[in-house]
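User: Last request for today: this protein with 2'-deoxycytidine-5'-monophosphate, please.
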Amino acid sequence: MRSSRGPIVAIDGVAGSGKSTTARRVASELGLRYLDTGAMYRAATVSVLRKLGKAGISDPSGADDKEITGVVAESDIEISKDGRVSLNGEDITDEIRGSSATEWVSKVSAVQGVRDLLVPLQRELSTEGAVVEGRDIGTVVFPSADVKIFLTADLSERARRRAVERGESSVDDVGRRLEARDKKDSKRDVSPLEPATDALIIDTTDMSIEEVVGRVIAQCAKAGVTGE
Ligand code: DC
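Assistant: Here's the final one, the structure of the complex with 2'-deoxycytidine-5'-monophosphate:
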């Protein structure tokens, strides 16, 4: 039996698999909040980079996990219902998508202390029900989610999509960066990227976004999550 919270649709998967677009559209169709947990880890990363700098978090003799956790603990990270992200009251929605945040987010998000701070916030923001997007939503954040989806796609197709989305000319470069980030996210000790045993795995390589959304909505209907 579900607790007092609203319905949770967990959408996990690799970068470029179509998670964000799918999650946003499913949320809008079901009248639920959309929560991008990756944006929260990105905001934490911006905060760490501002306080400690790149050297501080790349050098093993520099910032250790405790220091990184300490910075995040003092950061006021907010994410509005329309997806704007702020750090200590400053809007950083664009900055979190920049190359520095993207380069360092795997490092910061692999720190257990950081996850211990952000996971309760993710649960709190979803109490009225939400479509929650991330890497560990079905496994760690909401192991009893009403619906669990895991999206995958071939690396070359994911790189092509990302390059178009970000206006980058070298699909190969984008592909190499995606592959490196996938590896870090999957190989880490804490909350690694992996499908929950009860997740529906959808390979989106040859699917349109409409088809993916349709499959997720059908899965939600099966679970009795139909929106108002
Ligand atoms: O979804 P994204 O690419 O914006 O996520 C950025 C990074 O944040 C991703 O490389 C891994 C991390 N992340 C995580 O560890 N756990 C989540 N639930 C969401 C994202």
